[in-house]
From TrEMBL:
GTP binds at residues 205-212, 230-234, 252-255, 318-321, 343-345. Its main location: cytoplasm. PROSITE patterns: G_HFLX (PS51705). It comes from Cellvibrio polysaccharolyticus. The keyword Nucleotide-binding applies. One of its GO terms (cellular component) is cytoplasm. Monomer. Associates with the 50S ribosomal subunit. GTPase that associates with the 50S ribosomal subunit and may have a role during protein synthesis or ribosome biogenesis. The keyword Magnesium applies. This is GTPase HflX.
């Protein structure tokens, strides 16, 4: 839209260098999966080592000649680098290679643009793309940097480059204001859930760890789940009733990846805040992945960026069917659940996960048959509001008997609003049982 560049295509030459100047190297296998997820068709994979990147081309002159030959021989339409390139490096490479050049950030942005389905998701992706584009705007308009004089050639007082920058700023400002409204709506929803004492459990983890498959398995939802990177972009929520806890909101979130572009973290802040304000985080881990420890570390880094590193966390090791393991719960010295091993694909261990969540979220429950008199109708109504009543029957004296199941903290709050004491309640002969 903004600059003259070669048409993009799907035949791609991939470039991955092992750098040794202090930057952590990216995983070449993950890079290839990213390209395939974007719909690319890798026809060659160029690897090499570099002590420091070349200022003009990122790669050295020898690698540049090798790339030129490959692009010409294979008729490649796209060269993708598993690194972050500067705008000038992209421009210089395209000039030499005569084809479209993309870096890791641009590749991830393209995948996000393909996957976004909701209005909010599309806005967030567009914001990230525009911020990325703003740094590369200079490349396409070198022929219009100076205004010309003469009849019919006098412009509006700014160059084409300045016009595009202004249009870009206006669009970014408009999207940010829309996302601000989305954020306030999400905040309002969170406050109402907090007032109703409904805990939120967010599924976080490295991309393609199986979050959406597990979410569907536990909640019975039908969220899009595929064996590809970033299959989920738009957060989905479902309500589930757990024993000894009551209503719980489960939230499926976007997957993380190593060196997730900062522009994306900023753009998806409204979505990621859902995880940052959760009662409990389920950190889903691909137990069969060789780079399991590295993936866990990268997720913890992103959780730190969004301020969620201090939240209670339950580690969930998924895909044990690939390891031929039995499902189990790992506990600490006091018996508190630390990790659950399961398979979201087969469903093995999913009941153990719900058990562990119930233990971590569960509070002291009051269960029994409450005997109310005819003048305690307000208390009856409040218990119904809390969805604590499972059965009701009326007595000959005009009163009623309510079979209730409610967290004791919620019951005490209800009694306080009615100026009643817990000891003043009358229970049926079987009495109350507390857990």
């Amino acid at each position: 839209m903004f600059f003259d560049r070669p048409d993009s295509g799907e035949l791609a030459v991939l470039v991955h260098l092992n750098v040794s100047y202090g930057q952590e190297s990216e995983d070449p296998r993950e890079f290839e999966e990213l390209v395939l997820s974007a719909g690319g068709d890798p026809v060659a994979f160029v690897t090499g080592k570099s002590t420091s990147p070349n200022a003009r081309f990122f790669i050295g002159s020898g690698k540049l000649q090798e790339l030129q030959q490959l692009v010409a021989e294979l008729k490649a339409e796209l060269v993708i680098f598993n690194h972050t390139l500067s705008p000038s490096q992209e421009r210089n490479l395209e000039k030499e290679l005569q084809c479209r050049v993309l870096d890791r950030t641009g590749l991830i942005l393209d995948i996000f643009a393909q996957r976004a389905r909701t209005f909010e998701g599309k806005l967030q992706v567009e914001l990230a793309q525009l911020r990325h584009m703003a740094t590369r705007l200079v490349r396409g308009w070198t022929h219009l940097e100076r205004q010309k004089g003469g009849i019919g050639l006098r412009g509006p007082g700014e160059t084409q480059l300045e016009t595009d920058r202004r249009l870009l700023r206006n669009r970014i400002s408009m999207i940010e204001s829309r996302l601000k409204k989305v954020r306030s709506q999400r905040e309002q929803g969170r406050r109402s859930r907090q007032r109703a004492s409904i805990p939120t459990v967010s599924l976080v983890g490295y991309t393609n760890a199986g979050k959406s498959t597990l979410f569907n398995r536990v909640t019975g939802a039908d969220v899009y789940a595929q064996n590809q990177l970033f299959a989920t972009l738009d957060p989905t929520m479902r309500r589930l009733d757990l024993q000894d806890v009551g209503a719980v909101i489960f939230a499926d979130t976007v997957g993380f990846i190593s060196h997730l572009p900062h522009k994306l973290v900023e753009a998806f802040r409204a979505t990621l805040e859902e995880a940052a304000n959760s009662t409990l985080l389920l950190h889903i881990v691909d137990a069969a992945a060789e780079e399991r420890l590295h993936n866990i570390e990268q997720v913890d880094i992103v959780l730190g960026e969004i301020g969620a590193e201090e939240l209670p966390q339950l580690r969930v090791y998924n895909k044990i069917d690939l390891l031929e393991m039995a499902p189990r719960i790992d506990r600490d010295d006091r018996g508190k659940p630390l990790a659950v091993w399961l398979s979201a694909q087969t469903g093995e261990g999913s009941e153990l996960l719900l058990e562990a969540i119930s233990e971590l979220l569960g509070t002291e429950m009051v269960i029994g048959t409450l005997m109310l008199t005819s003048d305690q109708a307000r208390l009856r109504a409040r218990l119904y509001q809390q969805q604590a009543v499972s059965a009701e029957s009326y007595r000959d004296d005009g009163g009623c008997s309510l079979t209730v199941r409610i967290p004791k903290s919620d019951l005490l709050r209800v009694l306080s609003s009615e100026s009643m004491a817990f000891d003043a309640l009358v229970w049926a002969e079987e009495g109350e049982s507390q857990h």
